[in-house]
């Protein structure tokens, strides 16, 4: 039985998540070759470079020229990345109050308490 190419592919976003995990764990910026080696897979150089370029274009990564190529680092940690996605989604929505209301009503009691505490702390910092 011949395996369909689509079945052999990894789930959408898994490679991107793996690349981000490597960069978050790194002590400094990495080259595409270092990232490819850390992935532990035999990927084409262009595959890793394409992922890094797309993440840079989205603002998820920062890159710095190093010789004839670039080194890459995460622009933020995973919590900052998630917060940025949430903010961008909210900014696209014309009915922000309704979105926030539905979001808060879907939170667990513990998450709602944490959000309330964080809002109070941010008011105190002002």
Provide a descriptive summary of the structure in words:
The chain is mainly α and 126 residues long. The protein folds into 2 domains: 5-74, Orthogonal Bundle (Arc Repressor Mutant, subunit A); 93-125. The protein contains 7 helices and 2 strands; from the N terminus they run ααααββααα. The protein has helices spanning 5-8, 14-25, 32-39, 45-57, 78-92, 96-105, 109-125, and strands at residues 61-66, 69-74. It has a two-stranded antiparallel sheet with strand order 1-2. Helix 2 crosses helix 3 (32-39) and helix 3 packs across helix 4. The longest helix has 17 residues, at 109-125.
Short key terms for the protein model shown above:
126 residues, mainly alpha, Arc Repressor Mutant, subunit A, 7 helices, 2 strands, disordered N terminus
Question: What class would the helix/strand composition place it in?
Answer: mainly alpha
User: For this structure, what is the CATH homologous superfamily of the largest domain?
Assistant: Winged helix-like DNA-binding domain superfamily/Winged helix DNA-binding domain
Count of discrete domains: 2
How far is it from the N-terminal to the C-terminal residue, by CA? 65 Å
How large is the radius of gyration? Answer: 19 Å
The fraction of residues in strands falls at: 5-15%
- Binned, the helix content reads 55-70%
Q: What does the largest sheet look like? A: 2 strands, antiparallel
Strand order of the largest sheet: 1-2
* Named CATH architecture of the largest domain: Orthogonal Bundle
Mean pLDDT: 88
In the CATH scheme, what's the topology name of the largest domain? Answer: Arc Repressor Mutant, subunit A
| The level-1 CATH class of the largest domain | Mainly Alpha
Number of helices: 7
């Amino acid at each position: 039985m011949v395996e369909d190419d689509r079945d052999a592919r990894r789930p959408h976003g898994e490679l991107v998540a793996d690349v981000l995990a490597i960069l978050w764990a790194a002590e400094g910026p990495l080259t595409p070759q270092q990232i490819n080696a850390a992935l532990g897979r035999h990927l084409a150089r262009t595959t890793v470079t394409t992922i890094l370029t797309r993440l840079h274009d989205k603002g998820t990564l920062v890159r710095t020229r190093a010789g004839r190529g670039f080194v890459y680092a995460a622009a933020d940690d995973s919590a900052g990345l998630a917060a940025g996605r949430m903010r961008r989604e909210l900014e696209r929505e014309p009915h922000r109050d309704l979105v926030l209301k539905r979001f808060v009503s879907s939170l667990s009691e513990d998450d709602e308490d944490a959000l309330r505490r964080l809002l109070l702390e941010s008011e105190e910092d002002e």
